Amino acid sequence: MPATEIRRSSRITRLIQMYSPSLYYELKLYEEAAQVEDSKEIFLLPNASPIDPQATNNSIAKLPDEFGKCLKLSKVDIEGNKLTVIPENVLRSWTTLTELNAARNLLTTVPDSIGVLTKLIRLDFHQNKISSIPSSIMGCCSLAEFYMGINLLSSLPQELGALSRLGTLDLHSNQRDELGLQFSEVKIYILAPH
After folding, report:
1. pLDDT, tens digit, for every residue of 142-159?
2. Which of 40, 88, 98, 154 is most open to solvent, judged by the fewest CB atoms within 10 Å of its CB?
3. Which residues contact 5 (CB under 8 A, 6 or more apart)?
4. Which domains does the chain have, with CATH numbers?
């Protein structure tokens, strides 16, 4: 089976070991199975088995750049940390992502490069400090669920209306009195208290 060789630093190894013991164990199994000579430097990820890291509720303040080398991810769960930004270079590398959960952090913006995630189906940024959504969101053409509740939104980009698969848009507890919804051609369920 073909495999992608990925370099890793001892820092990323420690992060994986601390925040996702099951992922660390799975990586060790891959190393042993592939009989990697220098297991401190290289591990193999089979193309057919993407690994989906979960790093929830760990007070992580910054995503390591090494996450940008994980090219086959389908799901990333970084909920409940202290992230203030998702690095553009890391996000741009996750082109196979179908789910991103970055809820309950300290994010102030949705990365401008969000539009490169054309396979993204579920995007969760609820309970952050985000005040706007970039127009590049229209590149997320597969997006079906978008959670932006408990943020600081006062307006929405018209480009949201271009997302024909968007069925759920959660905007509760924003500055919704000022939100101008212009979705006449799209059926969207807005989750908001009555």
Report:
1. 999 999 999 999 888 989
2. 40
3. 42, 44
4. 1-48 (no CATH), 50-191 (3.80.10.10)
